[in-house]
Amino acid sequence: EKGGFDHFMLKEIHEQPNAISDTYRGRMLVEQGLIRMAGVDDNMERIANAKRFIIVACGTSWHAGLVAEYILEDLARIPVEVEYASEFRYRNPIITENDVVIAISQSGETADTMAAIKLAKEKGAFVFGVCNVVGSSISRETNAGAYTHAGPEIGVASTKAFTTQITVLTLMALKLGKFKGTISISDFQFHLQEMERIPEKVKQALKSDALIQEIADKYKDATNCLYLGRGYNFPVALEGALKLKEISYIHAEGYPAAEMKHGPIALIDEQMPVVVIATKKGHYEKVVSNIQEIKSRKGKIIAIVTEGDEEVRELADYVVEVPETIESLTPLLTTIPLQLLSYHIAVMLGKNVDQPRNLAKSVTVE
Ligand code: F6R
Fold first, then answer.
1. H helix runs in 57-151, sequence order
2. With a cut of 0.95, is the ipTM above it?
3. Do residues 253 and 280 make contact, with C-beta atoms less than 8 angstroms apart?
4. What is this enzyme's class at the first EC digit (predicted)?
5. In this structure, what DSSP letter does residue 76 have?
6. Of the four listed, 151, 258, 320, 357, which is most buried by Cβ atoms within 10 Å?
7. Alpha carbon of 61 to ligand 1 centroid (Å)
8. Facing residues of 227 across strands?
């Protein structure tokens, strides 16, 4: 049942190339320059004319929502807010009939996310669901939606759900951008072509496994770890830290790299591993200077870089390469080594990777 892998989590990490292509298959018609998503097509006017998108989710799905915020604002030019469902529902939030609420949930059963969409519906918002589990409560409660088609996710730590949620929301952003004319046809087409190359590039990124095991062995006894990223890769840093916390029980924090100097930099000493996402597209030079700041305080640097990078290699203790792609798609690649890192550390520490203590796969109580 684990397909030859030791754990469901590892199996699901390795399923991502197929999971991502299953997500876009039948939706992305590259030759025709089309994206078909019934849930969007059938409600195009309502969704494309939204004054605002409010994304509600919890945990890893909330991180996917943050990545989607960058993509939707960038490509479709619609303002996006990303809310923890648990905060949103109790805040007397301002919701109008011109808002479209996007609920993201792997299980489709998360109690807080469910309550948030009920509230949004009461206030007249249109609710769009991005769920993995077909026929789940949230998928039934929403006005429309798009499934991620990632297949069953058994490991408690979410992996392929995250990358497929990003894939669905990227397709949605591209589709809306094309409809609204906020991206050019050539840019749209280029994104589609690049998306089609992602599964192969994820496979490539998975080849870092042996190197990641070496890094895991080196830092498994750390008590703290920082994850830094900027732009599209800031939410990836949050997600990397969450993965490490939940399965290895090592304290980890994710931060936007530039925020480091506003506090967390005080934590850095020679004991502190800092994972930095420093891919070539998007704020590269700024991240390099953040890396220099860490180095001058003797922090240990594990950098996720674009294939062929030389500048960061000179500064970092370890570099893990991922293939090059357009900036908006980098999270689909940079996430991979971070998933593997948390997995290998947890295994080396003898933790129960698939069923970490105190956690449940779907959180059906608030
Ligand atoms: C993290 C994790 C949790 C879930 C969260 C939301 O690996 O599994 O943080 O992401 O409980 O669950 P869903 O997406 O099912 O609503």
1. 59-71, 85-88, 111-122, 137-141
2. yes
3. no
4. transferase
5. I
6. 320
7. 6
8. 254, 275
List Cβ neighbours of 272 (8 Å cut-off, separation of 6 or more). 222, 224, 225, 226, 299, 300
Total residues belonging to the chain: 366
Cβ-based neighbour number of residue 294 at 10 Å: 23
d(CA 20, CA 14): 11
Task: Report d(CA 283, CA 249) in Å as an integer.
Answer: 31
Half-sphere exposure of 41 (CA within 13 A, CB side): 6
The model carries a pTM of 0.97
C-alpha to C-alpha distance for 154 and 12, rounded to whole angstroms: 8
Strand ranges across the sheet with 224-229:
251-256, 224-229, 273-278, 300-306, 318-322
- In ligand 1, the atom with minimum distance to the C-alpha of 113 is 16
With a Cβ cut-off of 6 Å, ligand 1 is lined by 58-61, 105-107, 110, 113, 156-158, 242, 246, 362-363
CA distance 135 to 95: 26
**Residue-wise pLDDT tens digits, 122-156:** 999 999 999 999 999 999 999 999 999 999 999 99
